[in-house]
Amino acid sequence: MNSQFSLPVFALALLVVLLLAGCAGGVHATTWTTLTLHDGILYVADLEQVRALDAETGEEIWAFPSPPDLRQYGPFYTVTLLNNELLLVTSYEGAGGLFARPRGVLRALSLNGGRLAWLQPFIAGGEFIAPGAAGDGIFVIGNSDGNVYGLRIDDGTLLWQYPTRSRVWATPLIISDTAYIASLDHHLYALDLQTGALRWQFRAGGAMADCPLLLNDTLYIGSFDHNLYALRPADGTEVWRFTSTNWFWGTPAGGDGRLYAADVDGNVYALDAATGQEIWRSRVQATVRLGPALSRDGKRLLIASENGTLFGLDTADGFILWQQAGQGQLGSMAIGGERVYVTRINAPQRVQAFYVENGRPVWSYPAQQQ
Amino acid sequence: MWDLLILNPMVNLLLLFYGLLGHQTVLAITALTLVVRLLTLPLTLKQQKSARRMQELQPELLKLQKKYADDKEKLAQEQMKLYREAGINPLGGCLPLLIQLPILYGLWQAIMRTLAASPLELVRLSQNIYSFIPGLASLIPLQSRFLWMDLGQPDPYYVLPILVVVTSWLSQKILTPPSTDPRSAAMNQQMLIMMPLMFGFFSISFASGLSIYFIISNLVTLLQYFVTPQSRPAPTGGTEASKELEQPKEPERPQKPERRPRAARRKGGRK
Fold first, then answer.
1. CATH domain A40-203 topology
2. Which of A54, A183, B39, B166 lies at a 20 to 30 A Cα distance from B103?
3. Residue of chain A with shortest Cα separation from B235
């Protein structure tokens, strides 16, 4: 390179590096954070810490670790309720040494006080992106290293692992003795919960990145091939498919014979769960990754978008009743009574509560400065 | 607008290559890099030609600097006159470079976006894929395993970063003209170290698919150097003038007989 242009090029390149490296500081999230609601308490993986918050007021009950120590623990992304006593949290820790690699780490914390119950000694090769699921004393979770892991809830012993051909970013669905889990390798796997043995697999035309929904003895799952599939849980046979204009990412919601799903373009559909026939369609002007959530009374459908806006739709016709804009991407949603709780990343307010009926804010964590 | 004009075409081209080349991510990145480098070749050559002519004028510029050291206005006038006589636009090398930079940045971004190592990046990718080309969405995610690496993650054994540094150094070295002007030589030497190290830092920090792009790009530069003689830099002159400016204690012999700049020949100046 000519020296006349070297300095400006170097300066420009340096600027690009700094921008790409996110030199502004703070935690740089690579995926979304999650929460779970249990017995009036919200358990939230909030990057630096796992927190227990009072669902009524948003006040912090406990946090792990305290004080936060990102260097040692890495960012926390997911929480899963194991039983009435334990909470499983995942983090992505950077190991020391020249050739060392970061690893996905599992910890079980006590619901009461957030004390460490066990630390899984095995090392997963990648990040745990989605929460796991628990059933019959076994905890199942997928990892970016392409494996599905089955562990004993009591002590974290690894019972089995099932390899797929791509990253597993989906939460499993455990029904009876079967774990259903999707992989980005275009397959939905039905695995024996006790052994991890394959029962059946269903191949879609594209990747699948979220948990299937079981409704009226039918599994529903969306795919990046623009299709929403209805499958028989017994053998994975396709019952029907509904085609949209872009990827289906999030888990559909359902009730009263209807299925609600949103594609990443923001198209929201209400379908007949039995036939896949469209009942209505609506559109929110935002990218939608998270699956819709249905209110307890079935009257409101909540859509969380990547631009931070939460939408409340009328399930009767898809009309957008309210929308609540906010900073950062929405990570996960949980409905409890009259409220919906959300997590946000890349925003000062990491957890928020809104009224389902009208979208009015209830509280934020951390509390907004007056 | 950026996505529409730069990023989306590159992302979709990369996916097309991926589909056509047997789902081999490295081959797809190579093909896209070659296509982009081929498309920007006229700009590259123009920029190099302009740079070469500027180098040829260095001796005269140094003389002018010495002659009009106390009169900046006159110096500027004489420099412009020299450029005019030589038929050179002093910014002529910048424009092609400025056009290339966003294209190369777009290529970088397209590779990072398509590799989609994190869920957040994958969601963004959903907005870049043309829905009118059937089957593109089914190619997601790209096969990211290559040898011992996950192309969406940095190389854990630092092999690719080392290759990036070596090839960057080589391409930088052949494109840097030998200079007997001490200031120029010092700056060149600094850049020769800094630039490869900076790209090495990129390689350690970002997806190894990006390192593949750096290596291919550097190899293309090396190939271009050997295939197109006009891309080779001329040795910078200015020996006497610069020596006078720097006032070295011991006179040095020029390392090689140097070609006289055209403008100097026209004016009958002595080397």
1. Methylamine Dehydrogenase; Chain H (2.130.10)
2. B166
3. A2
